[in-house]
Amino acid sequence: MSFFNKLFSKKQEEDLDKGIEKTKKSFLSRITHAVAGKSKVDDEVLDELEAALIASDVGLDTTIEIIKRLEERVARDKYMGTSELHAILKEEIIGLLSEGDHPSVTGFQIPVDAHPYVIMVVGVNGVGKTTTIGKLAHQFKLQGKKVVLGAADTFRAAAVDQLKIWSERVGVDFYSKGMHADPAAVAYEAVKHGLDTGADVVIVDTAGRLHTKINLMHELSKIKRSMDKVMPGAPHDVLLVLDATTGQNAIEQCKQFTKATEVTALALTKLDGTAKGGVAIGISHEFKIPIRYIGVGEGIDHLQPFDSEIFVEKLFKS
User: Fold this and answer.
1) At a CB cut-off of 8 Å and minimum separation 6, what does 78 contact?
2) Other CB atoms closer than 10 Å to residue 265's CB: what's the count?
3) Which one, of 68, 215, 204, 218, lies nearest residue 149 by Cα?
4) Confidence grade of residue 3 (pLDDT, cut at 50, 70, 90)
5) What residues contact residue 263 under an 8 Å CB cut-off, 6+ apart?
6) Domains of the chain, earliest start first
7) What's residue 104's pLDDT?
8) CA-wise closest residue to 223 among 308, 70, 310, 121
9) 107/308: higher pLDDT
10) Exposure letters 131-156 (e unless 16+ CB within 10 A, then b)
11) Which of the residue ranges 5-14, 39-48, 141-150, 165-174 would you say has the lowest mean pLDDT?
């Protein structure tokens, strides 16, 4: 029997299995190698396990915390066989990730007290930001919601065009002032358009800031303030899109973006194209910001809600 909740269909479960297949193979092989030939969990096994987790892109800080928790379990239980390690490691990682969960917004469900619900999307170029917006709009449209996409990435002509193509593909409203328009003004007017037309959701795209260019990232604050002026409290979500294939660089991007703006949720894309999906564990733990969505394929329906328990269960399933 599937442990997926009602938000997941059989197809979504299969898509997730395929999407994290490379990560799962890499992760499990490293964990298995760490305990090969050992009968109990001792300092040597923990050292090997630490190296395996770091190699799996879990991240140093998160790996240290996991090993610390395992050491406490070993000390408390006195004896722990390596046969128990998978179950206990899984249990500790799930516990670690649950600390960053925010159950007020789950999956593609949004609060009903904001109308429209405004999402500002940020991230560097190439992470799949525009594609994520399109797939997210598709999910909201399937729920019967009226959606507006605002093209505030005005530095690249292709960005406006790509978002317009996605709006047409999904069948949702599109607001743009063209290339070179003031991004803050576009964001302001997109939210106003959403208010005037009775939209349920407004998703505002922003330029793919290089996370090393702090002066450019300061403009995100300006865009955010402009939306608050037309609708106090907007944006209700600042969604940072990260590319799983970049591994530890995704953690560095998250550090820089959280310094520049108040990121409230994460989307981790391209999990199907990498063995570095362990970075999801590190990001979720280190920043205590919920990973709201994961991309597990190129199809329009391959954006899924992220559930930390389901993700870890799948990761350890042999």
Assistant:
1) none
2) 19
3) 204
4) very low
5) 122, 238, 239, 240, 254, 257, 287, 289
6) 11-98 (1.20.120.140), 117-307 (3.40.50.300)
7) 46
8) 121
9) 308
10) bbbbbbbbbbbeeebbbbbbbbbbbe
11) 5-14
